[in-house]
Amino acid sequence: MTTETSPGQSHKYTNRLIDATSPYLVQHAHNPVDWYPWGEEALAKARAEDKPILLSVGYAACHWCHVMERESFEDEATARIMNEHFVSVKVDREERPDIDNIYMTAVQAMTGGGGWPMTVFLTPEGVPFYGGTYFPPEPRQRMPSFSQVLLGIADAYANRRDELLRAGTELLEHMRQASASRLADGQLSPELLDDAYATLHGQFDQTYGGFGRAPKFPQPTTLEFLLRYARRTGAQLAWEMLHTTLRAMAEGGMYDQLGGGFHRYSVDEQWLVPHFEKMLYDNALLARVYTEMFQATGEPFYRRIAEATLDYIARELRHPDGGFYSTQDADSLVPELGHKEEGAFFVWTPDELREVLGADALLFGQVFGVTARGNFEGKNILHVQRRPADVARVTGMPPERVEALIARASGKLLEARARRPRPDLDDKVLTAWNGMALRAFALAARAFGRDDYRTIAEQNGEFVLRALRDANGQLLRAWKDGSAGHVPGFLEDHALLADGLLALYEATFEPRWLGECRALAETMLARFWDDSIAGFYDTAADHEALVVRPRDTGDNATPAGNSAAADVLLRLAIIFDQPLYRQRAETILANLAPFLARYPTGFGRYLAAAEFALSTPHEIALVGEPAAPDTAALCQVIFGAFRPNTVVLLARPAEPAPAVASPLLADRAQVGGRATAYVCQNYACRLPVTDPAALAAQLDA
């Protein structure tokens, strides 16, 4: 770490994080703490100086991470303690989910809870022996101050090291056994899915939607399963759960009523007050759910929310070359106060509305619940208090006039908001998160007939495959400012990118995307699968050696690598007639079967994959030119409705042999020179059809 004293220098300190690719790490580059990034340099220093490691893990959009930095890491007295007694290492959990997974598991075992910022104390060999989350600068609510924790740990390490090492070694051994254990064999069955649905129904909030109590998270993978279950069974209660939840989320303050897109989660049960950060993965997954809900119901409301969410991603989270950024921060500068506050960019007072909207402010405020008292620290989070149709009925105004006024007013407010200091942007590009966004844009391109979404998806696929691979063609985790760094891709990067590329193939019928998808699947099987656990590890066999080889089985805010891999392997098994793909996927699902029914909100993508595995999917072979109107008419039948248990391939009629080497395309020809569809199940096909109505009849039979 250097101390800057030259005239004109704006920072007194600069540490090693100044060269990091992670914006979160760079945010800490001018702390007086002698930070190291995770790596051999830090570990070697800890060994050489016989000091414990202070590992601090967070991410750029984490509000309490910023608070702890401001209170402790920018405080020179605290930094002196850290620098004297510890080797301090800062990690971005989004860039290094492997490290985050290992040490979050340890903190949860030690404390019964977890979260970010995460603070863990390790031996120079990486063995965790004490940990927690946020520590305040002064003792508060039975919490010790951070300085007290630091001095207590330093004393214990100096004087009671054997005790610490014994406890840490025992915990580590338990973690290693859990990671390397083979789960009990289970069995997939429709009854298991019924049990999962029953559990969800018992956890459902019938008043406000969602599952459980505050704080409420959107849980898109749970909704993904519920939608598939509702379609298969026709369960009216399942449909009601979906409608209630999806409407409540989109009409609440968790959804950005002006700019589109969803905030991270709601601190209350009504979806009103959010944590204001916006994550790429939340918006990608939710855009997909709303798109599928539109396909299933035809209700314009769901299309509007899906498109507004995707438009937000394209407008504010997209690199000019096609990659998608990670997060938009919760905090932004309040000029009159001279510091940042959470949510400041998004909230309004009645006076601000009147200044921008004039006479329209009254009606707009009635729709979006604006009051003089406010609902968030004296200001207003916009939410749908009264639907436009209700306002029209009360005021006597035609509904279309109310809607036009709201649209006009929203546009003015969005322009006014754009002049405010913007929240910070974490502009690193993560492979896994881009895979989720890729699938969302590709799906919406087909569902809505949006060529612009298709172009965005194609540019994203090109970008990731070009910018996030090393010289040997191996996938990498993160990219920023022209550099993909050195962190190799994890299981979730391979699986979720493969998932997105498969959707991109269906949106374009360009064989290259399917070929890249299959190559990723082969890499997963070769480098991440382990027969001893009958599943995938999160890291490849040749990954950096850590104290535990991480293996995350449950779906969290994003799908687990194992669940995403199972999902895509099931579909590739049909496309390429590869029994091994199906065997691997079914093994993963069967081994987790007991957990799927008992804890469905932790296994949403697994349950959606199980719906596919237990179905008899439609295998559709199209013969036609992708851009031809007759092909487009058949595609509208396939993609205009919600058909989750379907795989679709296309052969061009002029090709001497199909570009995709699939038995589904073997010996297929057009009928009467028109685009033709062959609908098959278990490779047994019905008569070919060229008429869209006939195709719909076969698929809906």
Structure commentary:
The longest helix is centred in the first third of the chain and has 20 residues, at 161-180. The chain contains 26 helices and 22 strands. The chain is globular. A hairpin with a 7-residue loop joins strand 8 (265-266) and strand 9. The protein has 701 residues and is α+β, with helices and mostly antiparallel strands. Residues 5-9 have low confidence and may be disordered. The strands form 8 sheets. A 5-stranded mixed beta sheet has the order 3-5-4-6-7, sandwiched between helices. Strands 20-19-21-22 form a 4-stranded mixed beta sheet, with helices on both faces. Strands 10-11-14 form a 3-stranded antiparallel beta sheet.
Provide key terms for this protein.
26 helices; 701 residues; alpha+beta; 49% helix
General form: globular
* Fraction in beta strands: 5-15%
> Strand order across the biggest sheet?
3-5-4-6-7
Q: Give the helix tally.
A: 26
Question: How would you classify the quaternary structure?
Answer: single chain
Radius of gyration: 26 Å
Question: Cα distance, first to last residue?
Answer: 70 Å
Q: Tell me the total number of β-strands.
A: 22
Secondary-structure-derived class: alpha+beta
The percent range for helix content is: 40-55%
